[in-house]
């Protein structure tokens, strides 16, 4: 049986990667193989991973430079495809998985041949009863991928299987035919929004994206980038949101696009003022940098 190939991208986070592999080693009822792509870490990650007993059966790919989320994953995806993979799981290395999550995700494909991507419920870690992702959709007014149920208690409210139009790249199970039809992940964003872009293309080519809440993982949200409101996060999400908006402005009317721009820049100005008043100068600089770089790329 051809295994499911699980791809973890590591950048200066070998402790998280090892903990993730440890949880993956408890997977039940699924044949799988783990590929770790090291994105040119500077913290001796590769040596630490190779020496760790938990990672002895993992395939480790060393990238010569940091290729970002998409570029790192694409190295692993291409290797998996070359080895005949039927299903490929993209999984953040700062996650802990339930032993049955992959079994539930795989079984979802049996429901409909048009399903190309399967997602799961993602809760915070260590706050394991608080939802980070309980389904998702693309908000074409804000031009972002929205998480349903974020920061709510996991009381069963988001336990219904359904078709969705956005699955976070934190955990995507993708069948081979999607990559053969849509192509690999776009590498124009470096970090953030590549998953939103990929979902748009997946649906444009006629594949369905499905949410299965029986499959559950836990995410140390933002650990790799310093947190959900770190300067890194602020800069790259701002920059790439502008890029995504301009790339897909044809999805909405000219008037709606004008309103979306008005909303974006007015809310960024408000955020900037708040950062300055709070003395968060690094966040203010990151926001300005994100806006300027996002605009500059499209002059």
Structure write-up:
By secondary structure, this protein is α/β, with parallel strands linked by helices. The protein has 2 domains: 4-225, Spore Coat Polysaccharide Biosynthesis Protein SpsA, Chain A; 231-296. The protein contains 9 helices and 12 strands. The protein has helices at 14-24, 45-51, 68-82, 101-108, 176-182, 194-204, 231-247, 254-278, 281-296, and strands at residues 4-10, 32-38, 59-62, 87-91, 95-97, 115-124, 131-133, 136-139, 144-147, 162-164, 171-175, 208-219. The strands form 2 sheets. Strands 1, 2, 3, 4, 5, 6, 7, 10, 11 and 12 form a 10-stranded mixed beta sheet that branches. The protein has a two-stranded antiparallel ribbon with strand order 8-9. β2, α2 and β3 form a beta-alpha-beta unit. The longest helix has 25 residues, at 254-278. 43% of the residues are buried. The mean pLDDT is 95.
Quickly give the CATH architecture of the largest domain. Answer: Alpha-Beta Complex
Q: Please write the string of helix (H) and strand (E) elements.
A: EHEHEHEEHEEEEEEHHEHHH
Number of strands: 12
β content, as a range?
15-25%
What's the level 1 CATH class of the largest domain? Answer: Alpha Beta
> What would you call the quaternary organization?
single chain
Q: How would you characterize the largest beta sheet?
A: 10 strands, mixed
Averaged pLDDT: 95
DSSP summary: helix tally: 9
How far apart lie the N and C ends? 51 Å
Shape: globular
Tell me roughly what share of residues is in helical segments.
25-40%
**Class per helix and strand makeup:** alpha/beta
**Radius of gyration, taken over Cα atoms and rounded to an integer in Å:** 19 Å
In the CATH scheme, what's the topology name of the largest domain?
Answer: Spore Coat Polysaccharide Biosynthesis Protein SpsA, Chain A
Uncertain spans, ≥5 residues at pLDDT below 50? none
């Amino acid at each position: 049986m051809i295994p499911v190939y699980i791809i973890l991208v590591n950048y200066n986070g070998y402790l998280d990667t090892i903990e993730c592999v440890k949880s993956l080693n408890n997977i039940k009822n699924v044949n799988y193989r783990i590929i770790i792509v090291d994105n040119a870490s500077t913290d001796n990650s590769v040596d630490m991973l190779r020496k760790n007993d938990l990672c002895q059966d993992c395939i480790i790919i060393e990238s010569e430079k940091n290729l970002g989320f998409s570029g790192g994953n694409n190295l692993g995806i291409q290797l998996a495809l070359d080895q005949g993979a039927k299903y490929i799981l993209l999984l953040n290395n700062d996650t802990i998985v339930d032993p049955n999550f992959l079994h539930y995700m795989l079984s979802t494909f049996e429901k409909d041949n048009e399903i190309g991507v399967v997602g799961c419920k993602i809760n915070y870690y260590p706050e394991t009863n608080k939802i980070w992702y309980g389904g998702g959709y693309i908000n074409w007014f804000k031009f972002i991928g929205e998480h349903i149920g974020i920061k709510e208690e996991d009381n069963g409210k988001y336990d219904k299987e359904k078709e969705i139009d956005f699955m976070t790249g934190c955990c995507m199970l993708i069948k081979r035919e999607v990559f053969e039809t849509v192509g690999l992940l776009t590498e124009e964003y470096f970090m953030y929004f590549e998953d939103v872009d990929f979902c748009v293309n997946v649906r444009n080519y006629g594949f369905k994206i499905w949410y299965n809440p029986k499959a559950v993982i836990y995410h140390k949200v933002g650990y790799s980038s310093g947190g959900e409101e770190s300067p890194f996060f602020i800069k790259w999400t701002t920059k790439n949101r502008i890029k995504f908006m301009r790339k897909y402005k044809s999805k909405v009317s000219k008037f709606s696009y004008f309103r979306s721009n008005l909303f974006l820049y007015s809310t960024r100005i408000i955020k900037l003022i708040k950062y300055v008043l709070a003395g968060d100068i690094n966040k203010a600089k990151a926001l300005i940098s994100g806006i300027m770089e996002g605009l500059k790329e499209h002059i």
